[in-house]
Description:
Blueprint: E1 7-15, E2 21-29, E3 34-40, E4 45-50, H1 55-65, E5 75-80, E6 95-100, E7 116-117, H2 119-128, E8 138-143, E9 153-157, H3 160-174, E10 186-189, H4 195-203, E11 208-211, H5 217-225, E12 229-233, E13 237-241, E14 243-244
Parallel strand pairs: 3-6, 7-14, 10-11, 11-12
Antiparallel strand pairs: 1-2, 3-4, 5-6, 8-9, 8-10, 12-13
Organism: Corynebacterium oculi
GO molecular function, one term: sulfurtransferase activity
Pfam family, one: FdhD-NarQ
Amino acid sequence: MSRLSPRVSALHLHRAADGTLSASRRAAPTLSEEPLEIRLIDGPRYHFPRTPGHDVELAHGLLYAEGHLSRAEDLSETRYCAGAEGEDHCNTYNVLDLRVRAQPHPRPTPATGNARLNPAEAQHLLEATPPAQPEGLRRASALWPGASPRPSITREDLTARNSVDKVVGSLLLHNPATALPAEGAFLLLNSRPTPELLRRAHRAGFRGVSSPLRPTERAVGYARAHGLVALYAGRTGVLYSGELDPAGA
């Protein structure tokens, strides 16, 4: 279920030419935020805020990042807790119960990439990377540059980590045979690349990350240590990690 951009009554301030302030009350948008509890039966529990919607994908992506599963079929049970009731005695859909099979599939070890881009790939990434959105939702997308039968996937959430987990969970659920590792794909962000986001991209098999915001120093270090592309797709393109390979055009 999705409850995006609820509106609340708020005072809008207006500054006149002489510097005086006036105020008028009208509706203003907000970002939806609700708590989610993911309960792994006979395992740990995770509590965090999120934007409602794509909760099952979010749970799969989180459990993949934390090493609890490698394929969607590693979960034998996924359901909203029927006992979670709100003030109106309805299910709040804020508690997910999941059960991992006794013998989940072995998880492949993330490989170290060569972090090389050809000019066509670099141009595609520069054009496809979304603009920064400091006041809106954090967006993550999976992109396969060039001709590919595998479509791009885009998810949004309050936090960049959640949006990345939703993308990874979507790959697990909707293309379980070949989804991960996401060979050949890049992770596009509209938020700042951090070591945690690079770690998630690496575990899922992405070739690298592209963002309109400059990465942190530690994120660059992680990308270089693991052979990941780290591209700043701002007003000018800066390849913080990786090489441009004209011969690969």
